[in-house]
Amino acid sequence: MIKIVAAVLALFLAANPAFAQQRLLNIFNWSDYIDARLIDEFSKETGIRVTYDTYDSNEVLETKLLAGRSGYDLVVPSGTFLQRQIEAGLLQPIDRSKLRNSGAIWAQIDRRLATYDPGNRYAINYAWFTTGIAYDVAKAKARLGGQQITSWDIIFKPENLRKFADCGVYVLDSPEDIFAIALAYLGLNPDSKSQTDIAKASALLQKVRGSIRKFHSSEYINALANGDICLAIGWSGDTLQARSRAREARNGVEIEYVIPKEGTLMSLDNIAIPKDAANVVEAYAFIDFILRPENAARNTTVTNFANGVEASKGMLPAEVQTNPLIYPDDATMKRLFAVRPADRQTQRIITREWTRIKSGR
Ligand code: N2P
């Protein structure tokens, strides 16, 4: 009897999905990082309702994960943060055999990711990118004449940066990026965890602090596009989005992005599932959806961030596929460096120095 009732109920629910329990998925991703239409298409295809929240700093994500019960089923930490979160037991392994599209994962990117996630057990690359210099072409020309911006000198020589103070300079609120770049500029190891080296990088930043209007990791996109600022240290895709927004607005603002000749940081952002995620099956479904080359290609086309699905590259519009600022050529790749997570004590020193730099003390 009970079996019959259960069967009738199952039939009823299958015929009336409104009575079935709504499947949910809570995603926490970086802002300006997706072709938003994909979220609706995923919901239509799977019946899974998605709540999509955004952040613009690894520190914000980490604070939520450390507090526990973040409520999120998918998060996208960058490499070093991912490694720390794996070590702290905040994430759960991803069983790739359960992903229909795991074959689409780009082996070369997966190998880079393995430095943070040994054995590729906990994460799948979502996007990868560089940190560089974005500037307003006309305003730079007015200040530099014919001199091109090709070097970190424009940021770290106080007499250079001062020329841009009046038209607005923003810097990412990301100590990992900025310390690595400052260390490399000084000829030191960008991955140095030495207290003396960090103090030198900090002193370098303090010297130019007076010319920096704001430390922020997402507002610079619109600020550049609107002409509210003229120079920024930003992430590759974001600065190219600023360029597109300005062109769409036909406001006469032209934005350029450069990977300085001294080299820069290359980072990876990666999809992971928090340990206490409530909707794991749904999280896998979304990862599979994003791994479809045509979907990954749409993300890259909209965001200008390269993704971790090799087959998607051939599906990109030619100007994206061949853009060396999105997919750097081999010579540029050789100038890119990566960093490892700092130990807890170094982390504390960096945080303290960063707070001092931001507050100009
Ligand atoms: C997206 C920025 C992602 C790059 N707007 C930094 N993780």
Break the fold down into its secondary structure elements and pairings.
Blueprint: H1 2-15, E1 24-30, H2 37-46, E2 49-55, H3 58-67, E3 74-75, H4 79-87, E4 91-92, H5 107-113, E5 124-136, H6 137-144, H7 153-156, H8 158-161, E6 169-171, H9 175-185, H10 195-208, E7 214-215, H11 220-226, E8 231-235, H12 236-249, E9 255-258, E10 264-271, E11 273-274, H13 280-291, H14 293-303, H15 318-321, H16 330-334, E12 336-337, H17 344-359
Parallel strand pairs: 1-2, 1-3, 6-7, 6-8, 10-12
Antiparallel strand pairs: 4-11, 5-8, 5-9, 5-10
Helix pairs in contact: 10-17, 11-12
The structure holds pentane-1,5-diamine.
Protein described:
The chain has 17 helices and 12 strands. It is an alpha/beta fold and 361 residues long. The protein has 2 domains: 2-123 and 272-291, Periplasmic binding protein-like II (D-Maltodextrin-Binding Protein, domain 2), CATH 3.40.190.10; 130-266 and 338-359, 3-Layer(aba) Sandwich (D-Maltodextrin-Binding Protein, domain 2). The strands form 3 sheets. Strands 5, 6, 7, 8, 9, 10 and 12 form a 7-stranded mixed β-sheet that branches. It has a 3-stranded parallel β-sheet with strand order 2-1-3. A two-stranded antiparallel sheet has the order 4-11. Helix 2 (37-46) links the parallel strand 1 (24-30) and strand 2 (49-55). The longest helix is centred in the last third of the chain and has 16 residues, at 344-359. The mean pLDDT is 96. Pentane-1,5-diamine binds at residues 30-33, 78, 129, 235, 238, 269.
